[in-house]
Amino acid sequence: MPIRIPGKLPAREILESENIFVMEEGRALTQDIRPLHILILNLMPTKEVTETQLIRLLSNSPLQVELTLLRTATHVSSHTSAEHMDAFYRTFEEVKAEKFDGLIITGAPVENLDFEQVDYWTELCRILAWAKTNVFSTMYICWAAQAGMYYHWGIGKHKTEEKVFGVFEHRALDLRHPLLRGFDEVFRAPHSRHTYVYREDITACPALDLLAESEEAGVYLVATHDLRRVFVFGHSEYDVDTLAREYHRDLAKGMTIAPPRHYYPQDDPTLPPVHNWRAHAHLLFANWLNYAVYQRTPYDLNKLTKL
Fold this sequence. Notes:
Blueprint: E1 3-4, H1 11-17, E2 22-23, H2 25-28, E3 36-41, H3 47-58, E4 65-70, H4 82-88, E5 89-90, H5 92-95, E6 100-105, H6 121-134, E7 135-141, H7 143-153, E8 158-172, E9 186-196, H8 199-203, E10 208-214, E11 218-224, E12 229-232, H9 242-252, H10 278-294
Parallel strand pairs: 1-2, 1-4, 3-4, 3-6, 4-5, 6-7, 7-12
Antiparallel strand pairs: 8-9, 8-10, 10-11, 11-12
């Protein structure tokens, strides 16, 4: 089934070149079906790249999805044009009267700051409070996963001795869980972060299920029992060259940084990386859409119950 996006969104051309079926509003209205209404709060600096990555994964489903892109009003993006933001993004004030089947909150390059030091922290807290009554299931990615843990349960983040940077093996802990259906026992996913949460803090919280983890990268996938909050501590949405671009960006800044681990063949940065987490990424997002959202959300969104 196609994904419904604004007609002139730059991601459209890229996705169509990959044979991903996207649909404009006019054609979508001719289908007698209620699409899933998904809101994306994009906190990443390179908005257009992240849009494309997430839309690609959300499109791999038999469900029709209608996207709304959300930006913070208290932080102005310096890496994306104002024209793009004005054309395709809405603010919280513009969507707060609406209800959504799902919300995705991306990572953000602010992990070395205390949460309260982030300039849009107060606004993010308002959005998370609003989501309790206006969103059925929320997926938190990387920094957002840490922020969500802190906001909902007071679980703090901790700095790593060195950056968790690379593509790591993870073990699925309960293959019968809906979010892990179809997973291999061991799968790969990228990470790029300087902070982490303690496994013990997750397992001590009675509201949470620890679903996947890595010996090297730590906690990876966590969810509440009802799947209304899903936390992904890595970046399964990353393109094959994303870690390479981050690595060369930091080198160009004169930073001392090791190549991303388990990413280049033979750990040789002169060789092209292999995209060996794509299948896992598509399955994770398809499972979230199907089992956490579509199978559980009310047909009439006005009947959403408070978390």
